[in-house]
Amino acid sequence: MAPTCKRRVSGKALANGSVGVIYQVFENVAEKYDVMNDSMSLGIHRVWKDILVHKMNPSPGTLLVDVAGGTGDIAFRFLNYVRSVRERQLQQKLRHHQNLSWQEISKSYQEEKSNPLGDSQVVVCDINKEMLKAGKKRAQHLGYSEGLSWVLGNAEELPFDDDKFDVYTIAFGIRNVTRIDLALQEAYRVLKPGGRFLCLEFSHVSNPLLSRLYDLYSFQVIPVLGEVIAGDWKSYQYLVESIRRFPPQEELKAMIEDAGFLKVDYQNLNSGIVAIHSGFKL
Amino acid sequence: MLRGAAVRAALLRAVRGAPGRAGLGRAVPRAEEEEEEEEERQRGGRVPLYPGHIPTTPLQKALLAAGSACAALWDPYRHDMVAVLGETTGCLALPKLRDRMRNDPEGYRILQERPRIRLSTLDMARLGGLPDGTLGREYIRFLEDNKVSPDTRMPAKFVDDEELAYVIQRYREVHDLMHTLLGMPTNMLGELPRSVLPTDPSDGFWPIGIPDPRPREVHGEVSSIPVPAPLSSVICEVVVKWFEAVQTGLPMCVLGAAFGPVRLNARKLQVLATELLPWAVRSGRNASCVLNVYYEQRWEQSVESLREEIGIFPPPAVCV
């Protein structure tokens, strides 16, 4: 495939982390985003995202907003999860009502067909048009049509009303937000009372040996992968540096509590390479 | 290279002075300095030496070389990967090439003046107006026929010396001229040079610069001499790569030369092995360094005379 003409992003601009520059970075990486994720994390990012959705444990009827959801990884997993829960619910219902007439049984089959998601919905919100485009294409390719909406929006200023969503997730996105406190405040605003905030993000490894191996891998291998696979060294150098600059687990927990969330906790995955932070609006 | 960074860091510290003491510069908090050093060390311990330079550690270079080789083999249209492979493996061959340029008067001038072959520096209209058979005219014809532009060459990124970066850049920009000099156009279906070809286009391709010995159609009779069929673009690229491998010694050329013919059929391989490659290797050995020719000052020279001057033998006429 011939290399596409990409706008070069200067290293200094990347270091300052302005919104426009980050936009360009993700514009450059959108096409190869999923391939790069698989090769950089050796496919482990899929397990991390699976764990996030299992921790969420959504029931049918949940309204989820996935911010910085780009290519739709969390959204698709949510829909799969909710669909399988719904199927199990309907099967349970049938089993408990052994004395149903044939008409009632066939009605319940129709119900299952007409509402496989049980009114669950996910809104994928991303600041970058290219990422949303890539996500929509993927959804079409994988056959997701129902219960999915794609919205262009900034995590620091969400285009939604207050108290709308049951769950707010942001997976590997909060690192790229310039004002994390604003994003957390927005998350608090759009969640319903009782709603849950979930954040999946790279964090700090405390184990010194693992930390050195992780640093070596990050700084030596990942930009090379970026150059070889996506033809873009600088964007992946930026990625690795932005991970180092991100606040560690306890600091992020304090920031989430500052935004008003309660029962804030975090779970380390892979000794802290990745952490899931969770909080409730009560 | 790491030593260099340590020396520079020590100098900086000496200039800035420890916090509290009267140093020559502002007292910078120790933590910030350490962070900067840490980042520099992680980036390969160097600052960019020229626009577009990405400093890399030896480990990164090794990984890049392996990765780009795999990527180029996997997808032959990844020209950027071929370029990266050339840069990361050329650390021995490039200095030798640079020294050969330094030791030659014309090459030395090129290193001083640093001419670039780009659309902005070439006067395309003037070159197109030159007589047929001149270097300028045939080069423009090559660019037009193959719909390539000299601006598509990647700038050097991973070469850690500014002069060597120019040498590899010059090598890339001269590649198209190599095609012209060797008479190896990569596209047979475009317009063919009228001055050196028979008037009947169905007769196919004849290399540039060789008088056509085949008899023209006379009184309706068609010549019985077997007509050479068009050479495929892969064969042309392979021949040029072999020539360049002999001339420059760049590992990337050697790899390209070795792996290029892999996907060709037996007939083409035979033509390559028996006629084209021996000629390319002989010419490469006999010719002086092609990077030592100041092409920008020789547009009016005819291709034939330039070939003689450099020492490239006339290309063979082949049947495929």
From TrEMBL, chain A:
<keyword id="KW-0831">Ubiquinone biosynthesis</keyword>
<protein>
    <recommendedName>
        <fullName>2-methoxy-6-polyprenyl-1,4-benzoquinol methylase, mitochondrial</fullName>
        <ecNumber>2.1.1.201</ecNumber>
    </recommendedName>
</protein>
<dbReference type="GO" id="GO:0031314">
    <property type="term" value="C:extrinsic component of mitochondrial inner membrane"/>
</dbReference>
<comment type="function">
    <text>Methyltransferase required for the conversion of 2-decaprenyl-6-methoxy-1,4-benzoquinol (DDMQH2) to 2-decaprenyl-3-methyl-6-methoxy-1,4-benzoquinol (DMQH2).</text>
</comment>
<feature type="binding site">
    <location>
        <position position="71"/>
    </location>
    <ligand>
        <name>S-adenosyl-L-methionine</name>
    </ligand>
</feature>
<keyword id="KW-0472">Membrane</keyword>
<keyword id="KW-0496">Mitochondrion</keyword>
<comment type="function">
    <text>Methyltransferase required for the conversion of 2-polyprenyl-6-methoxy-1,4-benzoquinol (DDMQH2) to 2-polyprenyl-3-methyl-6-methoxy-1,4-benzoquinol (DMQH2).</text>
</comment>
<dbReference type="InterPro" id="IPR023576">
    <property type="entry name" value="UbiE/COQ5_MeTrFase_CS"/>
</dbReference>
<feature type="binding site">
    <location>
        <position position="126"/>
    </location>
    <ligand>
        <name>S-adenosyl-L-methionine</name>
    </ligand>
</feature>
<dbReference type="GO" id="GO:0032259">
    <property type="term" value="P:methylation"/>
</dbReference>
<comment type="pathway">
    <text>Cofactor biosynthesis; ubiquinone biosynthesis.</text>
</comment>
<dbReference type="InterPro" id="IPR004033">
    <property type="entry name" value="UbiE/COQ5_MeTrFase"/>
</dbReference>
<dbReference type="InterPro" id="IPR029063">
    <property type="entry name" value="SAM-dependent_MTases_sf"/>
</dbReference>
<keyword id="KW-0489">Methyltransferase</keyword>
<dbReference type="Pfam" id="PF01209">
    <property type="entry name" value="Ubie_methyltran"/>
</dbReference>
<comment type="similarity">
    <text>Belongs to the class I-like SAM-binding methyltransferase superfamily. MenG/UbiE family.</text>
</comment>
<keyword id="KW-0949">S-adenosyl-L-methionine</keyword>
<keyword id="KW-0808">Transferase</keyword>
<dbReference type="GO" id="GO:0008425">
    <property type="term" value="F:2-methoxy-6-polyprenyl-1,4-benzoquinol methyltransferase activity"/>
</dbReference>
<comment type="subunit">
    <text>Component of a multi-subunit COQ enzyme complex, composed of at least COQ3, COQ4, COQ5, COQ6, COQ7 and COQ9. Interacts with PYURF; the interaction is direct, stabilizes COQ5 protein and associates PYURF with COQ enzyme complex.</text>
</comment>
<feature type="binding site">
    <location>
        <begin position="154"/>
        <end position="155"/>
    </location>
    <ligand>
        <name>S-adenosyl-L-methionine</name>
    </ligand>
</feature>
Automatic annotation (TrEMBL), chain B:
<dbReference type="GO" id="GO:0120539">
    <property type="term" value="F:4-hydroxy-3-methoxy-5-polyprenylbenzoate decarboxylase activity"/>
</dbReference>
<dbReference type="GO" id="GO:0031314">
    <property type="term" value="C:extrinsic component of mitochondrial inner membrane"/>
</dbReference>
<keyword id="KW-0831">Ubiquinone biosynthesis</keyword>
<keyword id="KW-0479">Metal-binding</keyword>
<keyword id="KW-0472">Membrane</keyword>
<comment type="similarity">
    <text>Belongs to the COQ4 family.</text>
</comment>
<keyword id="KW-0456">Lyase</keyword>
<dbReference type="InterPro" id="IPR027540">
    <property type="entry name" value="Coq4_euk"/>
</dbReference>
<dbReference type="GO" id="GO:0008270">
    <property type="term" value="F:zinc ion binding"/>
</dbReference>
<comment type="subunit">
    <text>Component of a multi-subunit COQ enzyme complex, composed of at least COQ3, COQ4, COQ5, COQ6, COQ7 and COQ9.</text>
</comment>
<keyword id="KW-0496">Mitochondrion</keyword>
<feature type="binding site">
    <location>
        <position position="179"/>
    </location>
    <ligand>
        <name>Zn(2+)</name>
    </ligand>
</feature>
<comment type="pathway">
    <text>Cofactor biosynthesis; ubiquinone biosynthesis.</text>
</comment>
<feature type="binding site">
    <location>
        <position position="175"/>
    </location>
    <ligand>
        <name>Zn(2+)</name>
    </ligand>
</feature>
<feature type="region of interest" description="Disordered">
    <location>
        <begin position="21"/>
        <end position="51"/>
    </location>
</feature>
<keyword id="KW-0999">Mitochondrion inner membrane</keyword>
<feature type="binding site">
    <location>
        <position position="191"/>
    </location>
    <ligand>
        <name>Zn(2+)</name>
    </ligand>
</feature>
<dbReference type="GO" id="GO:0005739">
    <property type="term" value="C:mitochondrion"/>
</dbReference>
<dbReference type="Pfam" id="PF05019">
    <property type="entry name" value="Coq4"/>
</dbReference>
<keyword id="KW-0862">Zinc</keyword>
<dbReference type="InterPro" id="IPR007715">
    <property type="entry name" value="Coq4"/>
</dbReference>
<protein>
    <recommendedName>
        <fullName>Ubiquinone biosynthesis protein COQ4 homolog, mitochondrial</fullName>
        <ecNumber>4.1.1.130</ecNumber>
    </recommendedName>
</protein>
